[in-house]
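Hello again,

I reread your note about wanting to compare the complex against the isolated chains. To keep things tidy I'm splitting this into two emails, and this first one only covers the full assembly. Below are the input lines as submitted, including protein chains and any nucleic acid or small-molecule components. They are followed by the predicted structure of everything together. The single-chain runs will come separately.
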Amino acid sequence: MLAGKTALITGSTSGIGKAIALQLAADGANIVLNGFGDAKEIEAVRERIERDHKVRTLYSAADLTKAAAIGEMMEAALAEFGTVDILVNNAGTQFVSPIDDFPVDKWDLIIALNLTAAFHTTRLALPGMKTKEWGRIINMGSAHARVASPFKSAYVAAKHGLSGLSKVTALEGATCGVRCNTICPGYVYTPLVEGQIADTAKARGMTEEQVKNDVLLAAQPTKEFVTPEQVAAFASFLCSPAAAQINGADLSIDGGWTAQ
Ligand code: NAD
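Full-complex prediction:
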């Protein structure tokens, strides 16, 4: 379905981003991986994608909190593949604290990574998409792009902002073949959530099992985590011809969380 196209997925060395990279490679796209992690493990993922799916790959270690590094990553991708046809702004991080205690450096980090980075990648990818009259931009929102929870001020603000950026991108790209949407997952079982479970257990004096069931899945009516593969299948669908009229939408995949 995506043969000859190139997909750049930020934060694709782990969790949801990695699952999306594997899925879009299975769909035939060349893949630009990005993110931090163990160099050997990242190289193994890169080799696996090339071997299993006969596509080309590039890895960028760009720190997305730095505009110059994002510029270099996009230049390297364009030099290697000509255009970035599919951009998935997925890299993100979380910090949990009441507003009055919220560390200023954590606020700055979350806004830079979860929101501003997507502005930079989008502004650099759009010209090529417009020239080719085809582009798909998928921004990784969250249920927290639609509703709030206490103690997550920076994350909720960044994700709501990302939803706004998606809508503007959708309107500006609408007659140029560009589509932009926000996927809004509920809790997905990834290293990010594993860390949150451990931290919450320590902070509240609960077992990890109690945190999973009584804190995280309390908000998720199905009482089941979303899987990274389900989010990846959703992203793949958004790149398919059947999704060509889905534009500027906040698309929930949250087991009913935001239906409440
Ligand atoms: P994860 O921690 O497993 O992966 C995060 C990725 O971002 C990693 O590849 C990491 O190396 C990369 N990254 C972190 N800082 C970076 C930086 N400065 N520059 C470049 N890359 C950086 O997390 P995940 O759970 O897979 O989350 C991915 C996205 O999905 C995030 O935007 C997150 O907010 C969103 N999301 C996650 C959940 C969930 O429950 N896991 C729910 C809703 C939304």
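For quick reference: Strands lie at 6-9, 30-34, 57-60, 86-89, 135-140, 178-185, 250-253.

B.
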